[in-house]
Amino acid sequence: MGSVAGEPGRAKRPVPPAAARRSRAEEPEAPMPTEAKQATVAELREELANARTMIVSEYRGLTVKEIAEIRRALRKQDVTYRVVKNRLMRIAADDSVGEALGPLLIGPTAIAFGTDEAGTAKAVLDATRPYNKIVRITGAVLGDRAIDADAVTRLAALPSREVLLAKLAGGMQAPIGNLAGLFAAPLRNLGFALAQVAEQKRAQSPDA
Fold first, then answer.
1. Residues 62, 87: contact at Cβ < 8 Å?
2. Residue 199: pLDDT band by 50, 70, 90 thresholds?
3. 36-156, what's its fold?
4. What is the domain partition of the chain in residue ranges?
5. Residues 6+ apart with CB under 8 A from 138
6. Is residue 98 pLDDT above 70, yes or no?
7. Three-state DSSP class for 178?
C-alpha cells in the first residue's frame, strides 16, 4: 500500500488561479442580468405601444448630467427620452416596428417617444440644440414608417397635429366620426385628407 500522507500513486489536482476562482464565485448571479434585460424589453415594448412617434439620435459624448437635462426639457413637452441598448430595442421592436427602426439603431442610441409627430420632432431639436455638435439625429419612425434626419428637421417645421387638424376641420364637411379618425391617424395621412378637402372645394365651386 502507498503512503497515506504522500499518496504517490495519485495525481495532484491543479489549483485554479485566483481569477478563475472569482469567476466561479460569481456564476450564481448570472440569471440576474437576464431578468433585468427581460424587464427592460417589456418596458420598451410598452413605450412602443404608447408612442406614435420615435425620434432616434446618437448621444455619443453627452455626460450623464446633459442627458438628464435633455430628458427634463422633453418631459415638459410630454415626450419621454431614454437611452437604449440597441440589441434590446431590436428585440422589443421585432413584432411591431422592427423593420423601420432597426436600421436607425447605430452607436450609442437615445430615443424620444411622443404622440404628436411635428411636436415631438420640434421638442427634440429644441432640447438638443445646446448639444448639436454632439447629438446626431439619425432619423425617426412615424407609425411604422422610417424617415431620415433631414425629414425630421422638415417635420419639426410643421404646425402641430392639433393646428393642422383644426385647419382641416374648418375646410372639410365630414361627419364627426371621420374627424375623430383623423386625430388618431399618422401625420402622413393628413396629406391625403387635405387632398380630399381640395377635391370637395372643386366640386362645390368648379371655377375655384
1. no
2. low
3. Alpha-Beta Plaits (3.30.70)
4. 36-156, 161-204
5. 56, 57, 58, 104, 106, 109, 149
6. yes
7. helix
Of residues 167, 197, 164, 165, the one with CA closest to residue 180: 165
pLDDT of residue 185: 54
- Grouping H, G, I as helix, E, B as strand and the rest as coil, residue 107 is coil
Residue (of 61, 63, 176, 69) closest to 108 by Cα position: 61
Q: Do the Cβ atoms of 67 and 59 come closer than 8 Å?
A: yes
φ/ψ (deg, to 5) at 58: -100, 120
Beta bridge partners of 111: 56, 82
- Per DSSP, 59 falls in state -
Measured CA to CA, the distance from residue 110 to residue 86 in angstroms comes to: 9
Length of the chain, please?
Answer: 208
Longest CA–CA separation in the chain, Å: 118
Round to the nearest angstrom and report the end-to-end CA distance of the chain.
115
Quick check: 48 pLDDT over 90?
Answer: yes
Count of Cβ atoms closer than 10 Å to residue 181 Cβ = 13
What pLDDT, on the 0 to 100 scale, is given for residue 175?
Answer: 52
How many percent of the chain have pLDDT more than 90? 54
